[in-house]
Input
Amino acid sequence: MRTDRAFSLMAQFQIPDHQAGALGAKSSAGTPHFPFLDVLRGLAILLVFLHHSLGAAYGYYWQPWKGLFPDFQSADAHWLLFPLTMGNCGVAIFFVVSGFCIHLSHIRRSSGSSETWKAFAIKRFFRIYPPYILALLVFYLSWPWRTYSLASPGWQHQFWSHALMLHNLEESTAFGINGSFWSIAVEFQLYLIYPILILLISRFGWRWTLFFLFTLEALIRLSVFPVASPFCGMHQSPLAYWFSWALGAYTADCYLRHKIRQFKPFVLVAAFGLALLSYTFSPLVDFQFMAVAILTMLLIWQAIAKSDSGEKNKRIQPRFLNWFNSNLIKLGIVSYSFYLIHQPILLIVQRLKQRFDVLADFPILSLGLCLLLYVPIFALSHFLFRYIEKPSARLGRLLSSNPRLPVASGS
Output
């Protein structure tokens, strides 16, 4: 079968022996742990949390435009709030980190232990789905989020489309129940087409594969496929994020092949400038996700290059930066559970605004209330990570340890 052929191609991605102990200790699962990835995850979920806090408090997520540039003169819009409108870039960071981790972990395992696609699917299912379905049931069935009849055909459709992780493909269900769930479905679908990515790489190489994926994602973002057409689902499909996700996989492949080298600082500055420009110059707004994905790839690339070369920062960092970095790592570790639950909890503030005029008249108070909710959300996320997410992932590793097939030789 084509999936077996794709799996046998994994044997081509051999890992240099001198890479075995690089970049930190191995996790209990046998794969290396990268603290800087937890920092990126923590930064990503913090940005998303602030972005959704802005929406809950002020009623908008993006700065209105006035011609080519953001309009800071409109009601409630203020330049101090503008950075919060950029918080959706956290999803792009998540996708690149996901691509890096999935490719790195799977290639490492398959090159030495002939892991099958079945084992890969089992592990990813138990890593993602049990915490997701629990959160889905809570927000679908529980007060104050359940504001509909469970017998309603529309809401039954909402539930089953979410349970099957297909809700992102319809405009009416993409942001139903929990607005953050759309990206979980996209990522899960990216896992499903991961074998196709491996086939493309084996047939055309990374350069042409990335060129094809870039073209495909860019065309979708340019609305070449009209929203009101049979192709409307493509705008929220994994194809619209495939290039961005594959950048992480490409970085992992370069690391495994020991091809990562440090680049000049101006490259990182230019990538940061491009990402910032995509939020401040309206013709580039459709490419925000791709710009942030490229910046994230370069950040991971630079972190690996510095670590691999043994370069250390000899400057003493301020205590605040050490504290901030440490807390980002803690947040990054529980970022998936945090992502699953944070937005519906923030929406409680919108309900309070309807009851208390002072919160509606002074949205800065609503924003402050959202920020205060960070503490209980983080505490609950830690609980879910420890008692739901980790045991589920452990079960997935246990169930995937048996189904193995020999890797074809000579291909």
